[in-house]
TrEMBL record:
Coiled coil: none annotated. Residues 393-404 have a biased composition (Polar residues). InterPro entries: DNA_mismatch_repair_CS (IPR014762), DNA_mismatch_repair_MutL (IPR020667), DNA_mismatch_S5_2-like (IPR013507), HATPase_C_sf (IPR036890), MutL/Mlh/PMS (IPR002099), MutL/Mlh/Pms-like (IPR038973), MutL_C (IPR014790), MutL_C_dimsub (IPR042120). Residues 209-327 form the DNA mismatch repair protein S5 domain. One of its GO terms (cellular component) is mismatch repair complex. Signal peptide: none annotated. Keywords: DNA damage, DNA repair. SMART domains: DNA_mis_repair, MutL_C. This protein is involved in the repair of mismatches in DNA. It is required for dam-dependent methyl-directed DNA mismatch repair. May act as a 'molecular matchmaker', a protein that promotes the formation of a stable complex between two or more DNA-binding proteins in an ATP-dependent manner without itself being part of a final effector complex. This is DNA mismatch repair protein MutL. Belongs to the DNA mismatch repair MutL/HexB family. Residues 449-591 form the MutL C-terminal dimerisation domain.
């Protein structure tokens, strides 16, 4: 057994940094929380390259005295508590005394600070935990901290950071949340020298909502207020018209501290039950106030998680207060984005038993020279061959955009196929004869539809057994392969909007769209820059309704934020899967016999017909023998 040694201060600080400083946004959080604890009401934040290269936070708080500044960089040194008893009465955001030494241990940090009583301030420069320079300096009252060369001595941590735009987006989102929870403070935020956000500091949360989102979104927020047995709740929640695909825009603060709390999220979602579709979440800012001795904030190194003594009471209060606000408001959606004469695109299927015709839509089967593909499967050179396959949707007029991968002859074929309409009887075997050099179609059974179960599953049979097809998963697989093909061939189907849509974006959202512009255009988005905080959306993928543009863009941005740094192939898969899920038929939609047969016929010619892009099965089967055994016929 090796002997036990006490770790030296440098090693201990780097270990602590691994717990407290996960990424650049962690540094910004710790520094701004210190500024707020110092009584600052003006905080300027500047970052370079997503915070990876540099971070600077300047405040007008009370500052740190010359005597105390060196102590601030010792582990477990803090002015906010003195004994263990004080942990039951925490009124500040910071208290552990680990933030500054942890940051200084993994970066080059400089601090200039001055208290009001002194005519001069104090400066320190620390690199990797070692003091390089210190002494008096001239500076205004308050504190300025600059952090550079982040994780220079922990390359594994730096290597696993996400892209600059993603890391910058996380910081931007944090600044927005801080401004929302502290409307009385003025925040100014710069990225690469450009100011992208400034909060009014008026003390009114509605003003901050308008600056974080936009005036239209702010006007669709509902005020919530309530209190019960010493617990107070205030804030704003969105009407169901404003929703997101993740919980990222739900901001929860307890006693001024931004926290992650699953119980509060569940209580909020309970109030929206039946008002939002599955997988959609509201925009919300909830400020909860309760006695300090009722919470334990010392359960997480970064202080993002807390334990609340009266959690069930708080959950009940959140559900009751937010539910009451929703019930008292007119929740009829206002379709202000659509021109009066336009109608949303809807799925249309022939009625059962009626004679029907299917428009021939051109889809692309791709021939790939295997020698031109790299080791991660990203296609370098492709040639496209156009063949006609009946489309499941019988749609309104759309414009088709063809990219450079299609030859002039192929474009001509595509245009002709769009115009032709042929009455056909479809079987899986017939569709499997579609020409394609790239894929060898799987041996998918030739299924005969016999009905629909619970408006979610298609029942089909062969002479050998019963097959149950998940209509959403099946259509999702079909649409995924279509979008993924578009990403390779850059030949999207675009629905151009009659009236271009001006969409307001936050800075990091706009930067992400620019970064992924090529992929977005390849699947059918057409947009252009339209000023500092917005862009003009001119076209969307042809499978969506004109009114879905803004929601689609918001969902795409959130999906990119969640994924962070990934390979090009992974990004293509994620984008194609997201759009496929949103474009696919949903469980609960009633389909005609003809539509179900078409769906199964198109599934039969898919590359991977047996699972959806997320890995769920599209079809399950019972053989005749298995059915006989169930009914004890053998």
């Amino acid at each position: 057994m090796p002997r036990i040694f006490l770790l030296n201060e440098s090693t201990a600080c780097r270990i602590a940094a691994g717990e407290v400083i996960e990424r650049p946004v962690s540094i910004v959080k710790e520094l701004v929380e210190n500024s707020l604890d110092a009584g600052a009401d003006r905080i300027n934040i500047a970052i370079t390259a997503g915070g990876i290269e540099a971070i600077e936070v300047v405040d007008n708080g009370c500052g740190i005295s010359q005597e105390d500044t060196p102590l601030a960089f010792q582990r477990h040194a803090t002015s906010k508590i003195k004994s263990a008893a004080d942990l039951d009465d925490i009124k500040t955001l910071g208290f552990r005394g680990e933030a500054l030494p942890s940051i200084a241990a993994v970066a080059r940090l400089s601090i200039k600070t001055r208290v009001p009583e002194k005519n001069e301030g104090y400066q320190m420069v620390i690199k990797g935990g070692q003091v390089q320079q210190k002494g008096p300096t001239g500076c205004p009252v308050g504190t300025m901290i600059s952090v550079q060369d982040i994780f220079f001595n922990t390359p594994a941590r730096r290597k696993h950071l996400k892209s600059k735009s993603t890391e910058g987006g996380l910081i931007t989102d944090l600044v927005y949340k801080l401004a929302l929870t502290r409307p009385q403070a003025k925040f100014a935020f710069k990225h690469n020298g450009r100011e992208i956000f400034r909060s009014p500091g008026s003390g009114k949360m509605m003003d901050v909502l308008a600056s974080v989102y936009d005036v239209r979104t702010a006007n669709m927020m509902l005020a919530v207020n309530g209190h019960e047995d010493g617990v107070k709740l205030e804030g704003f929640i969105s009407k169901p018209e404003i929703s997101r695909s993740t919980r990222q825009q739900i901001t929860v603060a307890v006693n001024g501290r931004i926290v992650r709390n699953a119980a509060v999220n569940m209580a909020l979602e309970e109030a929206y039950r039946g008002k939002l579709t599955v997988g959609r979440y509201p925009v919300a800012v909830l400020l909860i106030w309760l006695p300090p001795d009722k919470i334990d904030v010392n359960v997480h190194p970064a202080k993002m998680e807390i334990k609340m003594e009266n959690e069930e009471q708080i959950k009940s209060l959140v559900t009751t207060v937010t539910g009451r606000a929703l019930r008292k408001t007119d929740l009829i959606p206002r379709q202000t984005k659509l021109p009066p004469s336009s109608e949303p695109y809807k799925l249309h299927f022939p009625s059962p038993g009626a004679q029907y015709t299917l428009p021939q839509r051109s889809i692309t089967s791709v021939h790939i020279d295997k020698g031109e593909a790299n080791d991660v499967g990203v296609v370098q050179n492709v040639t496209a061959k156009v063949s006609t396959v009946p489309d499941l949707h019988n749609t309104t007029v759309r414009q088709q955009s063809t990219g450079p991968a299609l030859s002039a002859d192929s474009k001509k074929k595509s245009a002709n196929s769009q115009e032709s309409v042929t009455s056909v009887i479809i079987s899986s075997a017939q569709l499997a004869e579609v020409d394609g050099d790239y894929k060898k179609y799987p041996e998918f059974p030739d299924l005969q539809v016999i009905g629909q179960l619970m408006n979610a599953y298609i029942l089909a049979q062969t002479r050998d057994g019963l097959f149950i097809v998940d209509q959403h998963a099946a259509h999702e697989r079909i649409m995924y392969e279509k979008y993924f093909c578009n990403l390779i061939t850059t030949a999207p189907e675009v629905q151009y909007l009659l009236t271009p849509e001006n969409i307001n974006l936050r800075f990091h959202e706009k930067e992400l769209l620019k970064e992924y512009r090529d992929n977005l255009q390849a699947v059918g988005f057409v947009f252009e820059d339209f000023g500092q905080d917005s862009f003009l959306l001119r076209g969307i993928p042809a499978d969506f309704s004109p009114g879905q543009g803004e929601v689609l863009i918001a969902d795409v941005v959130e999906a990119i934020m969640e994924r962070g740094r990934a390979s090009d192939a992974e990004n293509k898969h994620a984008l194609a899967a997201l759009l496929a899920c949103k474009a696919a038929i949903k469980a609960g939609e009633r389909l005609s016999m003809e539509a179900m047969q078409i769906l199964i016929a198109r599934l039969a010619v898919a590359d991977e017909p047996y699972t959806c892009p997320h890995g769920r099965p599209t079809v399950v089967s019972f053989t005749r023998r298995e059915l006989d055994v169930m009914f004890k016929r053998t």
